[in-house]
Amino acid sequence: MPSVKSFETDMRRARRKKRAKRNIKNFSFILAVLIIAGLIYLSRDAWLNFFDGILERHSDSAVQNDGALAGGNYPIDISKKTHTGIGKVAGSWTLFADTSFYVYDSSGNLKYTEQAPYSNPIVAESEKRTLVYDQGGYNFMLAGQRDKIYSKKVTDQILLGAVGDDGSVAIVTANEKYLAYLTVYDKGGSEIYHWADGSMITAVALKPNGKGCLVSSSYARGGTFQSVVTELSFSSTEIVMKTAALETLGFCAAYTPNGCCLLGRDRFYRLNSEGSIEMNFGYDYELLNYYVGKSLAALVFEGAGGSGGMLSIISFSGEEVKNVPISGTVKDVYCADKAIYILTDTSVEAYGSGGDLLATAPLGTVYREFSVIDDEIFLLGYRSVEKIEFSI
């Protein structure tokens, strides 16, 4: 029988042999790495050109705009204005400041101005028309790029308004009989449709052809908000479509190519033409900003831990939501046909529908809002309006 001492001797011998093999293996590996590195270095002229510019192509895949401010009539001074907002209409950019509405061309020339002495002015826009209404008041006006089309005074307090691509206008009011009452005007200002709702109307979207609209009505039940989207036709008293209750407080409804959508406080719904749910997207973080375009929606959320933000791109034809981290504080967002534009406290950025960065421009000043027209961006600051060239 082997003794304990001989067993320990054998174990020490085995450990020494194992350690020697490991050292030889490590030495061989290091030697192989050195040989390969030497061969790569000696043959560098044959392969180095293959990688030339790869990093540059990656970093330069997005157009780098210089962010240089335009001269001429810019900057446009608004330092004596208190309440300001920027928009666009038919290729011109607009400014609402205090009690006046202004329309400027690209060069910063004033095309026309209109007084709108409203206590709480709200601006809604479409491709060719701008609606300005006094929320909580009784007045509204419709303007184009060269003049005021008409103005009206209603008998009940205005809750919200919307303007369509054809110039039709929807005004929602409240009175003693109805919690919300919808009146629709054609492009000339004549009343063409009325509809009463027992719930609060929180969003209206006019159909592009001007023949109908979507209405989102919200109410509280069981401690939560619910919304119903109804589609109306201006040529019929029958309801075209009505959804089941949707679990959110809706505040933006819009037509999509194959139906409609509802953006709510904590959830986004995409619906087909019959009102059935095609997409139900719940938010993980606080919604800070949004824009609903014709083919997609862009939602901006507060970043995890309060740092930066997250851009969620929702296509009206696909199921997947594209999430893009955004550095800096997001000030404004806009969806055009070819890109999604983001204004942060340090830059302007443009993204494709797949979330890829298309173009960027640094900014030396913090701006509040912006308006995008073709390859020009108009920036609303606290003391002035500036312009930069921005190509994609």
Widest sheet, order of strands: 1-30-29-28-27
What do we call the CATH homologous superfamily of the domain at 286-392?
TolB, C-terminal domain
SS strand fraction: over 45%
Shape, per Cα inertia axes: globular
Reported CATH architecture of the domain at 286-392? 6 Propeller
Largest sheet: 5 strands, mixed
Q: How would you classify the helix and strand content by structural class?
A: mainly beta
Tally of alpha and pi helices: 3
Mean pLDDT: 88
CATH topology call of the domain at 286-392: Neuraminidase
Q: How much is the radius of gyration in Å?
A: 30 Å
Q: Can you tell me the residue ranges where pLDDT is under 50 for at least 5 consecutive residues? A: 1-12, 46-59
**What would CATH call the class of the domain at 286-392?**
Mainly Beta
Gap between N and C termini: 86 Å
